Amino acid sequence: FKNEIIKDNENIVHEKNFENGLNLVFVGRVEKNKGIDDVLKVFQKIEGMKNINSLKIVGESKREKYYKEKATMISSKISILGSLNRKDIFKIYADSHVLILLSKSEGFPKVIMEAGVFGCVPIVSNFSGISEIIKHGSNGFIMDSHNSKYHYKDFQLVFEDIDTLKVCSINIFKKSHSFTYEKYLLKIKNAILY
């Protein structure tokens, strides 16, 4: 994202209301390796929580029909939206409180900072290197799986802690400022010239 989006989003982030229920979002390829099955399992376990309004799943899938059927069986609060353009994704980020990404492995997922510039608190799996960016309880949450299973109570505790979520939202917004397109180009330029 470009620098200008930071200024445009400052009010969105500071006015984001965590009191009237949470909107969750997943953005990425909708496949097992990206953790979508775990996301759906977590949602199934916490679906009864009154402060969860929705889960929007954005991304392409070779098994879209399968995941749509699965989502329908779990909850009417889940929407599988397929691939969307950036403008539509940005609108979803603006309306969301939490980005949930439970990948089995990752490089550095740009989606964390893309959502972060909208104040979406990242809840991520503990993949290699993520703790250098996400500080648990400060600008997001890193969830450990035990024998490939998550403790659903860990998610419930996070979703109930509205005050910490609000602090994390502001902090991930601030952290996202280091990941603009302009800073990326500057790093490339410096690497080439020096």
Descriptive overview:
- With 194 residues, this protein is of the alpha/beta class.
- Helix content is 45%, strand content 18%.
- The protein has eight helices and eight strands, in the order αβαβαβαβαββββααα.
- It has helices spanning 3-14, 36-46, 64-74, 86-95, 110-116, 152-160, 162-176, 181-193; strands at residues 22-27, 52-58, 78-82, 98-101, 121-125, 141-143, 145-146, 149-150.
- The strands form two sheets. Strands 3-2-1-4-5-6 form a six-stranded parallel beta sheet, with helices on both faces. The protein has a two-stranded antiparallel sheet with strand order 7-8.
- β7 (145-146) and β8 (149-150) form a beta hairpin.
- The longest helix has 15 residues, at 162-176.
- The radius of gyration is 16 Å and the shape is globular.
- The relative contact order is 0.17.
- The mean pLDDT is 90.
**Mean pLDDT reading:** 90
Beta percentage is 15-25%
Based on secondary structure, the structural category is: alpha/beta
Secondary-structure element series: HEHEHEHEHEEEEHHH
Low-confidence segments, given as residue ranges, are none
The span between the termini is: 25 Å
Instruction: Please tally the helical runs, counting DSSP H or I stretches of 4 or more residues.
Output: 8
Tell the overall outline: globular
| Spatial arrangement of strands, main beta sheet | 3-2-1-4-5-6
Q: Tell me about the biggest sheet?
A: 6 strands, parallel
Cα gyration radius (Å): 16 Å
How many DSSP-defined strands? 8
Defining traits:
194 residues, alpha/beta, six-stranded parallel sheet, two-stranded antiparallel ribbon, 8 strands, 18% strand, globular
